[in-house]
């Protein structure tokens, strides 16, 4: 069996799938409020009736919004405290993305990469900004729905337009994210998002800078453990 290396921790997988699943329900329930399912007869399909109820859609939207806000807050606090910023975009990422995509399509050599490729960091920024816009404008929309709300009409209207625009951009972003896995070069990453580990050979070849960093860190950890064990054994023999 080929050797594996841990790429996505349990926390990362919880964040990824927590956002993905809550967003899936937010899209379904957001579109359900418009209401497009009745217009296109989706509600006449077996088991599709609930999609036509505005209040069921709104309750589902609120529930999924709560889960999304929790997961996003966890993501921001967790990685800031641990000082893990591998996925934050860097200067020159647009140019580097072009070089990587060209190499992927023409079979050329990609530049050595960190944990995330330049286009992955840009994808994170695009998806992340849209999610933040949806959360902020969503909160304004919730406040507007409260009894006796006095939110200015211009803010409500701006929030509604931005909420709708960010919905469209996010759906396009998710579409592009999924299309990326049609390319064979990206497919080994899918295993990592489900099981945590990816093939060591793949990591070494495609994310060499990250791979070497992890390997060196693991080597240092093993060495430190050995020294600790040796010191303990020495102290014990002195005690006797
Ligand atoms: C609402 C749906 C989703 C959202 C918002 C989302 C978001 C993200 C973001 C922001 C990243 C980091 C940037 C990147 O690597 O491109 C990522 C990585 C990833 N996602 Fe998703 N994702 C979604 C659905 C999915 C699905 C359905 C799959 C299954 C194929 C998937 C598999 C992955 C993989 C394999 C990675 C790469 C991880 C790595 O580099 O090790 N995602 N996702
Ligand atoms: C991925 C995230 C989200 C997507 C794709 C999404 C999508 C939508 C869509 C398509 C609508 C219907 C159009 C409209 O009324 O403007 C809507 C309405 C709404 N959304 Fe979201 N939304 C998301 C996140 C949120 C969040 C995080 C909140 C709350 C904090 C929220 C609160 C609301 C509210 C209150 C409404 C209006 C309900 C009403 O008509 O009274 N949304 N959303």
Outline:
The chain is mainly α and 240 residues long. It has nine helices and two strands.
Annotated CATH architecture of the largest domain: Up-down Bundle
Strand order of the largest sheet: 1-2
Which sequence of SSEs, written as H and E, runs from N to C? EHHHHHHHEHH
Distance between the ends: 45 Å
Any ligands, ions or cofactors bound here, and which?
Answer: protoporphyrin IX containing FE
Mean pLDDT: 94
Number of domain units = 2
For the record, what is the CATH homologous superfamily label of the largest domain?
Transmembrane di-heme cytochromes, Chain C
Kindly provide the radius of gyration, computed on alpha-carbon positions and rounded to a whole number of angstroms.
24 Å
Please identify the structural class as seen in this structure.
mainly alpha
- Under CATH at level 1, the class of the largest domain stands as Mainly Alpha
Q: Helical stretch count?
A: 9
Count of individual beta strands: 2
**Amount of helix:** over 70%
Main pleated sheet: 2 strands, antiparallel
Low-confidence stretches: none
- Shape field: globular
Strand composition percent: under 5%
């Amino acid at each position: 069996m080929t050797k594996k290396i841990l790429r996505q921790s349990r926390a990362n997988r919880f964040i990824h799938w927590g956002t993905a699943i809550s967003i899936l329900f937010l899209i379904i329930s957001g579109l359900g409020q418009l209401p497009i399912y009745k217009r296109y007869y989706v509600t006449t399909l077996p088991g599709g009736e609930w999609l036509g109820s505005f209040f069921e859609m709104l309750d589902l939207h609120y529930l999924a919004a709560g889960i999304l806000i929790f997961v996003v807050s966890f993501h921001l606090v967790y990685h800031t405290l641990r000082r893990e910023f591998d996925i934050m975009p860097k200067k020159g990422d647009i140019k580097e993305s072009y070089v990587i995509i060209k190499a992927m399509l023409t079979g050329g050599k990609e530049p050595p990469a960190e944990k995330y490729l330049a286009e992955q960091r840009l994808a994170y920024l695009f998806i992340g900004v849209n999610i933040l816009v949806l959360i902020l404008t969503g909160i304004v929309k919730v406040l507007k729905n409260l009894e006796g709300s006095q939110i200015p009409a211009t803010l409500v209207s701006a929030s509604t337009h931005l909420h709708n625009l960010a919905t469209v951009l996010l759906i396009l972003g998710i579409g592009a994210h999924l299309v990326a896995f049609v390319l064979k070069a990206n497919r080994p990453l899918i295993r990592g998002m489900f099981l945590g580990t990816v093939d060591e050979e793949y990591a070494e070849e495609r994310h060499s800078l990250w791979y070497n960093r992890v390997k060196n860190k693991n080597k240092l950890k093993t060495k430190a453990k050995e020294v600790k064990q040796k010191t303990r054994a020495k102290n014990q023999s002195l005690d006797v």
